[in-house]
Design brief:
Layout lengths: L2 H7 L10 E5 L4 H12 L3 E6 L15 E4 L5 H15 L4 E4 L15 H29 L2 E6 L13 H19 L4 E8 L5 H8 L5 H6 L9 H11 L11 E4 L3 H4 L16 H8 L4
Parallel strand pairs: 1-2, 1-4, 2-3, 4-5, 5-6, 6-7
The structure holds nicotinamide-adenine-dinucleotide.
Length: about 290
């Protein structure tokens, strides 16, 4: 990235012109937290989400440009990329957070239509948006893409559609990072751990995920907050990350490092007398 490109990628809060950022799935959960964070640093934000979802954003909905788009539909994505560019100008950052999760199921009983749906939204949808917006960024000489993957993309879990789709999101990010690097486009992924969003809340409420299981194996002993994922996304899409491309950044409260310790009885409890840091982490602090 040349100095000029670097400067152009700086958000308004760092002294540059306000940049335009597109957030898919920005009406809920992690995407919504990203929208808040990016608006706070001074970006102009366009949200791409399903029909009716703008109402879920409450008052924040008025602060963003909302576009109805099914990210798994190529025609819909192409048309919206064209509209956003014509109506709002060049897109500098893309955050792909649109996605759906699945229930645990043995592969023999996993409905193939459901498998197709998960892969189509999570993998194909991410790729389509990358191509539609990233291709323009490459031609305009710079930009940043952050794709929301998942820790399940790096480990074996009994989610036979979702986990492979998220592994593909990590791979797509790496492939496109090399493809567009010389054109000034950085592409990275963020892999959240278990984050209490409407999607995860629904899974917990229907008994498909147990909050105790979700936190027991993490090094920090807790779930992730949406704001913590948004902070990582904001960093990667900022000029502060100007030499970072093709990485996957886990934001997982230490699930990846803690899970293998179950073989040895689990991660240790807080040391006696070590109350400060450990107790605040246990309450979702530091
Ligand atoms: N919550 C977690 O614990 C967790 C963990 C790891 C990764 N993730 C990933 O984070 C992303 C956001 O998940 P979340 O938990 O915030 O879920 P969420 O359901 O709260 O938000 C997902 C958003 O994506 C939108 N969306 C779904 N399908 C779409 C489509 N075809 N086209 C356009 N928009 C669509 C939804 O309308 C919604 O606004 C997903 O990619 C998910 O896989 C979540």
């Amino acid at each position: 990235m040349t100095d000029e490109r670097h400067a152009a990628a700086l958000p308004a809060a760092q002294g540059g012109e306000p940049v335009l950022t597109v957030v898919t799935g920005g009406a809920s959960g992690i995407g919504l937290a990203c929208v808040r964070r990016l608006l706070a640093r001074g970006d102009r934000v366009a949200v791409l989400d399903l029909p009716g979802m703008q109402a879920r954003m409450g008052e924040l909905g008025a602060s963003v440009s909302f576009y109805v788009c099914d990210v798994s539909d190529e025609a819909s994505v192409r048309a919206v990329a064209e509209r956003v560019t014509n109506e709002l100008g060049a897109v500098r950052n893309l955050v792909n957070s649109a996605g759906i999760i699945q229930q645990r199921s043995a592969p023999e009983s996993l409905d193939q239509a459901l498998w197709d749906k998960v892969v189509t939204v999570d993998q194909r949808g991410t790729y389509l948006c990358c191509v539609a917006f990233g291709g323009r960024m490459a031609r305009q000489g710079g930009g940043s893409i952050v794709n929301i993957a998942s820790i399940t993309g790096s480990r074996s879990v009994p989610l036979h559609a979702y986990a492979p789709a998220k592994a593909a999101v990590i791979s797509i990010s790496q492939c496109l990072a090399a493809e567009w690097g010389r054109s000034g486009v950085r592409v990275n992924s963020v892999s959240p751990g278990y984050t209490l969003t409407p999607a995860l809340r629904e899974a917990i409420d229907r008994g498909d995920r147990d909050p105790a299981d979700l936190t027991r194996v993490t090094a920090l002993g807790r779930m992730v907050k949406t704001e913590e994922v948004a902070d990582a996304v904001e960093f990667l899409s900022s000029g502060r990350a100007s030499a970072i491309t093709g990485i996957d950044l886990p934001v997982d409260a230490g699930w990846l490092v803690g899970a293998p310790w179950t073989t040895y009885g689990g991660v240790p409890e807080a040391r006696a007398g070590d109350g400060g840091a450990a107790s605040s982490a246990g309450k979702g602090g530091q």
